[in-house]
Design goal:
Largest sheet: 2 strands, antiparallel
Strand order of the largest sheet: 1-2
Number of strands: 2
Strand content: under 5%
Distance between the termini: 20 Å
Shape: globular
Order of helices and strands: HEEHHHHHHHHHHHHHHHH
Helix content: over 70%
Length: 340
């Protein structure tokens, strides 16, 4: 889907205040777009999170995982506010506390899936560029100076109102045609199937960066970051499947989560090995620069890899079986739901 089409859909959701629905057990909840008042109301909570703006921009799911692990209570409180659409509910401490407690019982991965939507929800700068408001800004300032006052005339207000109504009408048409939950679910299922296969058969399997006489900690850490990013991408797509699923998809979605979890042991083992190799590579370089014998560090490095290989062989089959199960589940759902 093209970036412009995605942006149009985001604008549609913002203007018509479309909430995003999700299920927790048998209960249905919605995340509502924040109003200006809500933004100010929650400013203190967001500030206390200490979110990494760079990670939010590049990989919001990974940052959401970190925040949900380290600041779970704050995250649950923020999410509870986003699930109410009336001001009296937002300021009802009893309701907020009850829902915060309910969310706190969820697993970190479930919370992160929802909180990623909140972290990724600010598209103000994109909207400004899309509508050309940034280009009109200088002319708008000159216009106000020329008129010598801040109040618009009746004619100005009429034109602005007509423009807004026209935009709303056009955006609604775009939204009804393209923001189709049915289609979003299908795209997420297909993308997740491909992402998981690449994760297991290429991203996790390729550890060639460690098989060298002079290991580079920079290259190993780059591989580590890439692997974490790819895993986060697969997790995010699985989260989208949950969000766009319907009531009769619940059992199937649960199977997908259970099957994806079978990949975790291999992923965690590989991450631990890469991290240990990077530390050893740092020490090798340090000893070499200081003209100190580093043979024992080389031995430690080789031991890490030698111990990793048999452990990987033991659990690698489970990961490969998992991707075959995911592919079978994908075909089953596409056949039943989409006749494809």
């Amino acid at each position: 889907m093209k970036d412009k089409e995605l942006l149009e859909m985001n604008i549609a959701d913002t203007i018509i205040e479309r909430p995003i629905g999700f299920n927790i057990g048998s209960q249905q909840f919605y995340l509502y777009p924040p109003t200006l008042g809500m933004t100010y109301h929650l400013a203190g909570l967001f500030k206390s999170l200490g979110a990494d703006a760079r990670l939010v921009s590049t990989n919001p799911y990974l940052e959401a995982i970190r925040l949900c692990t380290e600041k779970k209570e704050v995250v649950c409180r923020i999410l509870s506010n986003f699930t109410f659409n009336r001001k009296e509910d937002v300021f009802d401490s009893v309701k907020i506390e009850a829902r915060t407690k309910e969310f706190s019982e969820l697993e970190v991965e479930e919370l992160a899936t929802m909180f990623t939507i909140v972290l990724s929800g600010d598209n103000t700068e994109e909207f400004i560029k899309f509508f050309g408001i940034d280009k009109e800004d200088s002319r708008g300032i000159a216009y106000e100076q020329e008129k010598g006052k801040q109040l618009a005339t009746q004619e100005d207000l009429k034109k602005v109102t007509e423009l807004i109504e026209n935009i709303k009408s056009e955006i609604r048409d775009i939204s009804y045609k393209k923001q189709d939950k049915f289609i979003q679910f299908k795209e997420a299922v297909i993308d997740f199937n491909l992402s998981v296969r690449l994760l297991v058969e290429y991203n996790i399997k390729d550890i060639s960066v460690t098989n060298t006489i002079s290991p580079s900690s920079e290259k190993i850490r780059n591989k580590l970051s890439d692997l974490q990013f790819r895993f986060g991408e697969s997790s995010h797509l699985l989260g989208k499947i949950s969000i766009y699923s319907e009531k009769d998809d619940e059992e199937w979605v649960a199977k997908m989560h259970q099957t994806f979890n079978k990949i975790l042991p291999l992923y965690k083992l590989t991450i631990t090995m890469l991290d240990s190799c990077a530390l050893c590579a740092d020490n090798i370089l340090k000893f070499r620069n200081e003209n100190v014998d580093s043979i024992h560090i080389y031995n430690d490095y080789n031991n890490i890899i030698n111990q990793f290989v048999p452990k990987r062989n033991e659990i690698e089959k489970d990961a490969h079986n998992a991707i075959n199960e995911i592919e079978a589940l994908t075909k089953e759902k596409l056949n039943i739901k989409y006749n494809s």
